[in-house]
Structure formats: C-alpha cells, structure tokens
Amino acid sequence: MTTLPTLPMLQPRRGKPPRHFTDLDPAERADAVKQLGQPAFRAKQLATHYYDHLTVDAGDMTDLPAAARESLVGELFPPLLTKVTQLTADDGATVKTLWNLIDHAKVESVLMKYPDRATLCVTSQAGCGMACPFCATGQMGLTRNLSAGEIIEQVRLAARQARDGELGGDPVRLSNVVFMGMGEPLANYAAVITAVRALTSPPPEGFGLSARHVTVSTVGLVTGIDRLASEGIPVTLALSLHAPDDELRDELVPINARWKVDEALDAARRYFDATGRRVSIEYALIRDMNDHAHRAELLAKKLNARGDGWVHVNPIPLNPTPGSKWTASDPKVEQEFVRILRMHGIPTTIRDTRGSDIDGACGQLAIKER
Ligand code: SAH
C-alpha cells in the first residue's frame, strides 16, 4: 500500500509563527543568545539594532563578531511579514500595506502623516471574531491571533518607512500607534500587552513612544479593560460604544450580549481612575440607525452620570463597507449629534477618516482577494 505524500506547498502552513526576538522577555533573550554561543550582553546590542536602528540586517550590525551575525539574525529575527502591496492616498501622506504572514494569512496596517504626528494603525488579529455588522473585518470571522512579534514588526517597518522619508517626502518620526486595525486587541491580550510594552519602553528595550500616544481600542471586553488598567502603562483606552442603549448595541456590537452598555462604561470609568487617562468613546454615526438626538441625549446622560472630565467622544462618520445597506449620517444630523453632546459638557471631536478611497479607513480593512 502506498501513502500519498503530503504536498507542503499546497497546504496552508498552520500553527504558530516562529519564535522572534521581540516575543521574548530580557531573560529569555539572554538565554537565547547564550544558546547560540554568545555572551548575554549581545541581547542588548541586538535590541539596540532592532528598536533604535530599526534594522534586522546582519550587515548593519558591525559591533557584533562577523562570524556570529548571520546565525544570531537567522535564529532570532526570522522574517514574519512580507509586503504584498502598498497603496497610497492623500498625496502620499496615507499608506496602507498588505502583509503576508508565514501561514499565508493576510493583514493590513495603515500609516498616516499629520502636521504634528505620524500614526500607525496596527492589526492584532487576522480577521476578527466580534462580528460587528458594520465593520468589514467583522464580516471575515477570526483566522488567528497575531503573535507579539507580528504586531511589533508592523511597527518597526512603519517606523523605518517614516524615518526614511517614504511617507510623503521628509523623514518623519512615528509618534503614535493605535490598535484600530483588524481584530479585537483585548481578545489577544498576551501578545498585545507584550507589544504595548515594546512600544512604550525606552530604547534599547523598546521604541520609546509615550504611553499616551498608544491607543488600545476595544468593543468592551470588561475583564480585558480591567486587566489593562492594572498593568501600570497608561495607554489611551478607546471604547467602541456606537449606541448608548442595550437594545441597539446588542445589534451593532454583538459582544453586548455579554457585557452591557453600563458594564462597559463602568469599566471605562475604572480605567480612568486607575490610569488618569481620559477615555475615548468611539461612535460610528450610521444614518437613521444610531444618530438620533435622543441617543445623543442618553449618551451624554450616561457619561455625565459617571463624573466629569474623564471621557471624550469621537464620532466617526461611518465608512461604507461592501454589501452593507448602511451609510454615514447626514452632515446636518452629525452636527446636531455633536452639538447635543457639547451642550451637555462632553468634549467631542469628529474623527477624520483617512484613506477611505484606498479602503484603509476604520472598519474597511478586509482582504479583497478573499
Ligand atoms: N476591535 C476594536 C478595534 C478595531 S476597529 C474595536 O472595535 O474597537 C477601530 C474602530 O473602528 C472601532 O471603533 C470600530 O468600531 C470602528 N469601525 C468599524 N467599522 C467601521 C466603519 N465601517 N466605519 C467607521 N468606523 C468603523
């Protein structure tokens, strides 16, 4: 009897991405370096190359012995992301990149230059399990969690691109990272918190971003919010509320079946108490769906009931997604929604929607070839 050989090229490669330097804590890095026959202090040199010089090219690492460079890099910096395509908008100030992962899962990240900052929107999961009906990624279902290394590599590659003047001309320093790409970050907690540490630790242990310039956006996983509050890293929390009442939120954000509006808002308030960081409430304005004056009133009431100065609201005009019947609110209705919130003392800023013409705006990230 013969057994057919399996053809690896035809199989999607399953399982975990390979171990990467950025997945490891300092003690594990020192161990890994020692196992490769090098003194532990090489781990710090490698960290400097990675987080400070933004390189994984052995040729750049001239402070390492030539004979050891290739094996250190080969073992500790396996390629995790391969660029598939890149689309630009806004005269080069917005760049969306499609990445291929080791198992051929595809993810996207979006880099945006503003006069005062450069922001990267990162992906934390391939697909998403939260199934919000107005979000393109939500329609894909969840393929898998990204590893910390896969998230951190999105940041290194974007920081390099910005530094090298590939974001509309002059060199730019990546200053902000938002977990608003594909996926629910708090459903991939371990990898996301490792990435948050790498973002906010000073070089050479991290990229040295200010915690306030890192935003973790969530559908409202209450246990995850409380855990994040206890980490001692005051990143900005964004809560995707989209409706102030359970009846409508049950439909727009299905996890509301598990944690109700009031529970999510209580967790957001606890986050403010623990970190001192003002929480953002995200509210995609969907025409005739959630944009009514009475909902603006109810939202203001629920936020004010939990105190002053702890929150602000970011309405986002809905970015249409393929096949959806929903569209953005009428600008007049949007203005009225904002006016009501402000009248009740709630700081409110409409979020700009960069990159909608390249399907790179909030909620539009989905892989076309699927
Ligand atoms: N899962 C996380 C982060 C991903 S999306 C979360 O839900 O917060 C980042 C933001 O974009 C969220 O506030 C999300 O609700 C919003 N969003 C999703 N689809 C959108 C769309 N079609 N138009 C505008 N915003 C959208």
UniProtKB/TrEMBL annotation:
<dbReference type="GO" id="GO:0008168">
    <property type="term" value="F:methyltransferase activity"/>
</dbReference>
<feature type="binding site">
    <location>
        <position position="128"/>
    </location>
    <ligand>
        <name>[4Fe-4S] cluster</name>
    </ligand>
</feature>
<feature type="active site" description="Proton acceptor">
    <location>
        <position position="108"/>
    </location>
</feature>
<dbReference type="InterPro" id="IPR040072">
    <property type="entry name" value="Methyltransferase_A"/>
</dbReference>
<keyword id="KW-0479">Metal-binding</keyword>
<feature type="region of interest" description="Disordered">
    <location>
        <begin position="1"/>
        <end position="20"/>
    </location>
</feature>
<keyword id="KW-1015">Disulfide bond</keyword>
<feature type="binding site">
    <location>
        <position position="217"/>
    </location>
    <ligand>
        <name>S-adenosyl-L-methionine</name>
    </ligand>
</feature>
<comment type="similarity">
    <text>Belongs to the radical SAM superfamily. RlmN family.</text>
</comment>
<keyword id="KW-0411">Iron-sulfur</keyword>
<keyword id="KW-0004">4Fe-4S</keyword>
<keyword id="KW-0489">Methyltransferase</keyword>
<keyword id="KW-0808">Transferase</keyword>
<dbReference type="InterPro" id="IPR058240">
    <property type="entry name" value="rSAM_sf"/>
</dbReference>
<feature type="binding site">
    <location>
        <position position="132"/>
    </location>
    <ligand>
        <name>[4Fe-4S] cluster</name>
    </ligand>
</feature>
<dbReference type="InterPro" id="IPR013785">
    <property type="entry name" value="Aldolase_TIM"/>
</dbReference>
<dbReference type="Pfam" id="PF04055">
    <property type="entry name" value="Radical_SAM"/>
</dbReference>
<dbReference type="InterPro" id="IPR006638">
    <property type="entry name" value="Elp3/MiaA/NifB-like_rSAM"/>
</dbReference>
<dbReference type="InterPro" id="IPR004383">
    <property type="entry name" value="rRNA_lsu_MTrfase_RlmN/Cfr"/>
</dbReference>
<comment type="function">
    <text>Specifically methylates position 2 of adenine 2503 in 23S rRNA and position 2 of adenine 37 in tRNAs.</text>
</comment>
<dbReference type="InterPro" id="IPR007197">
    <property type="entry name" value="rSAM"/>
</dbReference>
<dbReference type="GO" id="GO:0032259">
    <property type="term" value="P:methylation"/>
</dbReference>
<protein>
    <recommendedName>
        <fullName>Probable dual-specificity RNA methyltransferase RlmN</fullName>
        <ecNumber>2.1.1.192</ecNumber>
    </recommendedName>
</protein>
<feature type="domain" description="Radical SAM core">
    <location>
        <begin position="114"/>
        <end position="357"/>
    </location>
</feature>
<feature type="binding site">
    <location>
        <begin position="183"/>
        <end position="184"/>
    </location>
    <ligand>
        <name>S-adenosyl-L-methionine</name>
    </ligand>
</feature>
<keyword id="KW-0698">rRNA processing</keyword>
<feature type="binding site">
    <location>
        <begin position="240"/>
        <end position="242"/>
    </location>
    <ligand>
        <name>S-adenosyl-L-methionine</name>
    </ligand>
</feature>
<feature type="binding site">
    <location>
        <position position="135"/>
    </location>
    <ligand>
        <name>[4Fe-4S] cluster</name>
    </ligand>
</feature>
<keyword id="KW-0408">Iron</keyword>
<feature type="active site" description="S-methylcysteine intermediate">
    <location>
        <position position="362"/>
    </location>
</feature>
<keyword id="KW-0949">S-adenosyl-L-methionine</keyword>
<feature type="binding site">
    <location>
        <position position="319"/>
    </location>
    <ligand>
        <name>S-adenosyl-L-methionine</name>
    </ligand>
</feature>
<keyword id="KW-0963">Cytoplasm</keyword>
<keyword id="KW-0819">tRNA processing</keyword>
<dbReference type="InterPro" id="IPR027492">
    <property type="entry name" value="RNA_MTrfase_RlmN"/>
</dbReference>
